[in-house]
Please model this.
Amino acid sequence: MPIPFSSAVAANHHQEEELRWSKSKRAIARRAFDHALNQELQEVIQQAKQMAAEVKAPYELWELEHHLTQRRKEIDRKYEYRGSRLRYVFGSLLHEGRLTEHDLRGLHEDKLEAIRSYADFLAKVDVDA
Amino acid sequence: MPIPFSSAVAANHHQEEELRWSKSKRAIARRAFDHALNQELQEVIQQAKQMAAEVKAPYELWELEHHLTQRRKEIDRKYEYRGSRLRYVFGSLLHEGRLTEHDLRGLHEDKLEAIRSYADFLAKVDVDA
Model:
């Protein structure tokens, strides 16, 4: 079934809207993004150092390797800096407590609303799981 | 071109011969093998601990991950405990100085000869490279 004309236009408009971030808003978004990413990377580093320090048997070393591979892939997936994805990225970070609304202060209310809405959705998924 | 009958018989005989390790010889081989493998694994562990302790930036952590993956694959390939492969395994370990002829003492002279011969071959390859 073809998408009705009005929906297609709405979807298109929506996408464009997503990509339209003013310069100052982009700086706020970028700073919040980098802050969360750096913090998560520091956590991975500290955890890896501790795991490595505790390794005794070879299998524990390969567990560390596997853990690092998993974390790298997870972080790659999670931190995707694209205008159209940012509501999900920030929504996840808000949900995980890696960012607060304070870090996102200055973004347009409609962006914040979309981010909050996704964070709420994730919270609901967690409860249902 | 079909393999001449005599060569095929010789090859077959050769394979069977390779697999025929008496119980006591097998114990000597196994001990030497385990000794070299455990020593190499301990080296990887110690090196990984040191690398992890020195990590500052995230890229160094992913370097450690990559290093561990490479070493795991390398060790998997190198330590293949199969009768027909042991001359190559021990030849490599002898060549790398991970085993000495002392560790292999008690094996049949023909096995030792085959092992030595492969170690010599590797030494020659190194010189030519």
